[in-house]
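Researcher: Structure for this, please.
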Amino acid sequence: MHAGVMTEDQPQPQDEAILQLLQDRDGLPSEVLLRDGVALTVFNIAWGYDIGDEYAHVTTNISPAVEGTTVDFFLTKSVAAILDPASGAVLLETP
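Model: Predicted structure, token format:
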């Protein structure tokens, strides 16, 4: 599938704001708070959609690798909020 081309099996993404924010902050630390209470420090992301999914699967800190960080995996539908760890500012909250 080419970027921006949807098929009848592929619904419209529901997570564009999450992905855009994390892409815009590429190289800067972001604190991603998941609905289960887990907090992840994210410097960069690689993501994709499985056929039929409205929400992406995301791998963190791998492209490029960031020394001293963990590589984590999450689904965007599990994101509760994204914060700037330097200021504590809430950059995005999800319903």
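Researcher: Any notable elements?
Model: The first strand starts at residue 30 and ends at 34. Residues 16-24 form the longest helix (9 residues).
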